[in-house]
Amino acid sequence: MAAMAAMAALVAWMPHWTWLQPTMIVAAEGVASEGRAEGAEVRECQNGGQNVMVKEKPNSTRIYDKDGFRRRAACICVRAENEAEVLLVTSSRRPELWIVPGGGVEPEEEPSVTAVREVLEEAGVVGSLGRCLGVFENNDHMHRTEVFVMNVTKELEEWEPSSIGRKRQWFTIDDALSRLALHKPTQQHYLMQLQHSKTRDNTNRVVNATHPPKLTNVATSPAASPTTA
């Protein structure tokens, strides 16, 4: 009878064990593939309802919000008041392609600080941080990116990624949209929001950036406006 009771207790407990075991392994080792690591951490976030951390690479830790989304920040860098040009950097994984500089929020770090840090690290520029364009939510990759505008005041001649061939370049808005379409089409939402945001308060704005926007005439078409979630 005692053995049967023990077996019944084990069967009743196993579904709970199966649910948490992958999360515990990833959090402890931090060596699983990106997809598995994110999936495991999302389950833990939803179960515990708190921010969760897991190591991503040396000196970097992923932070997840209470909904299981990875927290990120990025900067749209401009150099003139009319914001006609933006700065893009080449991808570290695919150097022939261009992206908006940004990255994960570190522990105890505000997104605005993350944005400034990432721009300095990836693009080698400094400047004054301006308005927030909102939080861009990507449901496919489970991350939320808070995007800011930076007015660049100085471009460093040398910065760490430049030593391994990473480049930066100024593009017109239309050219930048075309470049992003090749590798990071969802980041086109950032630039479209830049164009529509000069007279709007975006502090608490959440933009669904899961899918690439439908572009026609990006400079004037109402269809270029991103959808708010």
Automatic annotation (TrEMBL):
A Pfam family matched in the record: NUDIX
PROSITE patterns reported in the protein's UniProt record: NUDIX (PS51462), NUDIX_BOX (PS00893)
Keywords: Cytoplasm, Hydrolase, Magnesium, Metal-binding, Signal
Enzyme Commission number: 3.6.1.52
Any one cellular-component term (Gene Ontology): cytoplasm
Chemical reaction(s) catalysed: diphospho-myo-inositol polyphosphate + H2O = myo-inositol polyphosphate + phosphate
Region annotated Disordered, chain positions: 210-229
GO MF annotation terms: bis(5'-adenosyl)-hexaphosphatase activity; bis(5'-adenosyl)-pentaphosphatase activity; endopolyphosphatase activity; inositol diphosphate pentakisphosphate diphosphatase activity; metal ion binding
Keyword Metal-binding on entry: yes
Location within or outside the cell: Cytoplasm
Signal peptide region: 1-20
Ranges for domain Nudix hydrolase: 69-195
Low complexity biased stretches: 219-229
InterPro entries with a match to the protein in the record: DDP-like_NUDIX, NUDIX_hydrolase-like_dom_sf, NUDIX_hydrolase_CS, NUDIX_hydrolase_dom
Cofactor names: Mg(2+)
Biological process annotations from GO: adenosine 5'-(hexahydrogen pentaphosphate) catabolic process; diadenosine hexaphosphate catabolic process; diadenosine pentaphosphate catabolic process; diphosphoinositol polyphosphate metabolic process; glucose homeostasis; lipid homeostasis; response to starvation
Protein family per UniProt: Belongs to the Nudix hydrolase family. DIPP subfamily.
This protein's name: diphosphoinositol-polyphosphate diphosphatase
Organism: Drosophila persimilis (Fruit fly)
Gene name, Swiss-Prot/TrEMBL: Dper\GL11750
